[in-house]
Amino acid sequence: MELNSYESAIEFLARNNIYPVMKNSKVYITGKNAKNLDKGKAKLIIEILSIKSPTDLERVKNDLRNARKKANSHVPIKDWIESERPREALLKNGAETLSLSKLLAIILRTGSDGVSAEELGKRILNKYKSLRALDEAPLKN
Prior knowledge:
With 141 residues, the protein is mainly α.
């Protein structure tokens, strides 16, 4: 993602669960994924956000909250266009054409807590890295 505007910086922070803080009039970027951010990119984000006062920081935090709400909005698979739905794609194109996350979505049948079955499939694959590792995982996981 290219960081070239206030909106793109807010979107980047929202997607990566990173947020600005101010200590002794100096602005820092923090959050669980902030450690993966190189110093140059962090400096660019701080520059783009133009935080000079606690009022500016509050404005950015409000915009960030709104961006997170928007990013977390969930559209159920049944409301997706038909060609993007996992089951329909399976029937039309065959299993060999589907991504592992779509195949896993079909097996899962339903998502949870505002997350589609496909997104849940992606999260599971990101955690276990392969279907073999998932198969070998203990049931308690």
